[in-house]
Every structure is written in structure tokens, then in C-alpha cells.
Amino acid sequence: MISIGGIIGAGVFVGSSAAIATIGPAVVLSYLSAGIIVFLVIKTLSRMALDQPGLGAFTEYVRVSLGDSAGFITGWMYWYFWVIVVGIEAIAGAKIMAEWLPMFEVWQIGLVLMTVLTLVNLTSARSYGEFEFWFASIKVAAIVVFVVVAASWLLGVGNSATPGLSNLTAHQGFAPFGWAAIFAGMTTVIFSMCGAEIVTVAAAESAESGKTMSRLAASVVLRILLFYVIAILLILCVLPWTEIKSGNSPFAMALERIGIPGARTIMNLIVLTAVLSCLNSGVYVTARTLFVMADKGDAPRWLTTVNKRQVPVRAILLGSAFGFIAMLISSGSPDNEFMSKLFTFLINATGAIMLIVYFFVALAHFRFPYGANAVANSGSKRSADVIAGVAAVAILIVMASMAFIPGMPSQLAASCGFLAIVVVSLLIKRALQKR
User: What is the crossing angle of helices 68-98 and 106-123, to 10°?
Assistant: First the structure.
């Protein structure tokens, strides 16, 4: 449920509209391809986690394999990614609630949301897990109900004039922007699918981490197929893709077309739940990643302090503080040119960060010091090599394609720019240590 909570955010309920509007029905293949890449990475990660469970953060498997420098780079990049996600999700949730609470500013509501979920995480890891379980349960139930309702409607239940599969090809064809557009959507789609790896972080505080990881690896592809591919496919069957506008929830539009009363309000509540879930996960994972990096000497040692409930209080507060700063930059960007440019860079910098981090994970497999029982626990080394190799090559292809797709070069450049900042920070750290 933690991995589901990390995967399903506003990206699927609202963000999918942008992918549909720019790719058309072929976006289903973008989701399917991105899902396969994520599955291959998680499968590779799970093999390492089963062999050495509970390292504290999934980027530590990169450190064990490729050295401290790789651990420093992937750790800070992953932390930065989730700090920005925390700010984005806080603003997304605040904007929804602002429709019901117009007397408050968006940033004020966002501050309250972040404060509440920070307090939840400060209480205990158990509190985070319980909140995430219920958040994820609501999201799973919502998507399952949507799939059942939409499929029934398309099969003619309560609808004598079903469009069937005609909307997939009736409006300028299945791939109206060409087959290359599928690659354009993959980076956005992968961004929205990130989160499955959070379970390796949480596994360090679980009594059954190996069991958890094996279940994740076996079922993550089914979750992706259900929560993304099937849901998006049904939306495209119910609605002509030309009617879906970026920024609107295609789920709400589909439910309105089916004739569900109060569809907009229902979806706003579900999206709010999804946002709070991702915000909750973001606060958790930024703290644990920062805590582990501090323990390894890649961040200030005082961040390793825990309270009597073994909660890394300082790491949580620091991550929440940076998330709040990102939220303030986001809320001020529409009215301030400097803020707008800064927020654009921050967002663009996350565009390929997870691709870079996942690439390191795939490479880590080839140098990971597996134990004697690795084959018995997770299959043959040869098949694992193929899975990791395909994942690495696929990620390189997607990143290379970003350089030639309109709108994507800026994201690739910003992500590489942030990577350069992290590398320079590593060199400065080493120079100070030598001195």
C-alpha cells in the first residue's frame, strides 16, 4: 500500500490530461512503455534488497555497488526530487481546498497541510504507515470503481449508444501526432509513476522487509496496468481525446459523460486524497533519505538525531522546510518574473532526475556483492543481468530522445545542470575532507 500511495498522485488523476492532449490515444503506449521501464528497475532493485534488506534508503544500494560518490550523487538527487514533489503536491491540495475555503490564501492552506502531515511523520513511522494505508485504500477503491463503471458503460449497461472502441481512432487516428510523440510522453509518465521504490525505504523500519520487496516486484506491473493503462484506455474510449484539455481531470470528464451526478466534487475529493498521500510519502522519504546520507557523512551529522520513538526529527523538519520553500516559490511564480523563472528551473530539473537515478540503480546490479543465496532467493543471475541491461538501455534511449522532442531539451538541460551542481558539491566536500 505504501508503494501504491507513492505511485498514485495527482499525476494520474489530473496530470494525465496533459499527456493525452499532447499525444492522443497513443498515450496508452507511453504509459505501458514507462510502466515496463519502472517494473524492470524495481525488479532489479528488489533483487538487491532481498539480498541485503533494510539499508535505509534505496539509493544506498547504489552506494554499496558503485561507491560513496555514486551514493552521494543519487542520494541528493533523489532527496531534491521529493522536496520539489512535496511543494507541488502541497500547492495542488491547497488549490483544491481553496475552492471550498475562499477566505484563505492558497499558500496558507498549503502551510496547514504541510504542517499536519509533518506532525504525522514526527509522531512515528507507524503513524505514517497507517495514514498512507488509508490514503492508498481510498485511491485504489476510486480507480477500481471507475474501471468498473466505465467498462460497464462501454459494454452498454445503462447506455444504448455506446461508442465502443471508436474514439481510439475516430479523431485523426490512434497516433495523431506521430509515433515519435510516444517518447515525448514517457518522461512525464515516468515522473508520475515514481514512488514504487519508497517501499525499500520503509522496509528498513519493517519486520518483514524481504517479504515486502518480493511482493512488490511480483505485483508492481499489475498495479501499473490497472491504475494507469486500463484507466487511461477506458477514458479514451469514453471521451474523444480532443475534448480533454490540459489541467482538467479526465476522470471527472469521463464520469460526467457517463452521467454520474456530482462527478467534479467526487473527483476533487479523490484528487485531494491522492495529493495528501503523496505529500505524506514525500515528507517521509525525504527525511529517511537525508537521515541515511547524514549517517554516511554526506550530510551534517546532527541530522541523525532521533527522538525516543526513533523518529529522525531534524531530518523531517529540514525536508519539510525546503518543501515549504518550494511551495512558496510555486505560489508566487504567477505574479513574479523571478519566481516564475526559478520555479520553471526547479520543475524542469526534476524532468530527468529520476531517469538518472534509475539508471544508476540498473548499473548498480552489475557490481552488487550478492550473497551465496541470491539465486535461490530471486532467480538466476543471467536473467537479472538481462533485466538490468534492458532497463539501462531503455532509460538511455528515453533520455536521448528528450534532446530532440520539442519542450524536452530544457528539462534535460536543467536536470543535467542540477547533476553538475551535485557533482561540484561532491568535489568541494572531498577537498574540504582532505584539508
Answer: 130
Q: 2-434 sits in which CATH class?
A: mainly alpha
> What is d(CA 237, CA 229) in angstroms, rounded to the nearest whole number?
12
CA distance 314 to 326: 18
Rounded Cα–Cα distance for residues 279 and 287 (Å)? 12
Q: Which of 265, 226, 230, 273 is nearest to 249 (CA)?
A: 265
- ∠ CA 210-211-217, nearest 5°, is 90
Position 161, amino acid: A
Residues constituting the chain:
435
The type of residue at 435 is R
Which set of grid coordinates corresponds to residue 279? 505529500
Return d(Cα 198, Cα 5) in angstroms, integer. 9
- Helices 250-258 and 125-154: crossing angle in degrees, nearest 10, is 40
Round to whole Å and give the CA distance between 79 and 164. Answer: 44
Q: How far apart are CA 267 and CA 152, in angstroms?
A: 19
Measured in whole angstroms, how far is the alpha carbon of residue 160 from the centre of its chain? 39
pLDDT in tens, the chain (435 residues): 666 666 776 667 777 887 888 888 988 888 888 888 888 888 888 888 877 876 767 788 899 999 999 999 999 999 988 888 888 888 878 888 888 888 888 888 888 988 988 898 888 878 878 888 888 888 888 888 888 999 998 888 877 778 888 888 888 888 888 887 787 677 777 777 777 777 777 666 666 655 566 566 556 666 766 777 888 899 999 988 888 887 778 888 888 888 888 888 888 888 888 888 888 888 888 888 899 899 988 988 898 888 888 888 999 999 888 888 877 777 665 666 666 666 666 666 676 888 899 999 999 999 998 887 777 767 788 888 999 999 999 999 888 888 877 777 888 888 888 899 999 999 999 888 888
Quick count: other Cβ atoms within 10 Å of Cβ 143?
23
Using CA atoms, how far residue 125 sits from 122, 312, 315, 381, in Å, is 8, 10, 13, 34
Whole-number Å distance between alpha carbons of 188 and 401: 13
The structure's pTM equals: 0.87
What is the spatial distance between Cα 329 and Cα 249, in angstroms, rounded to a whole number? 24
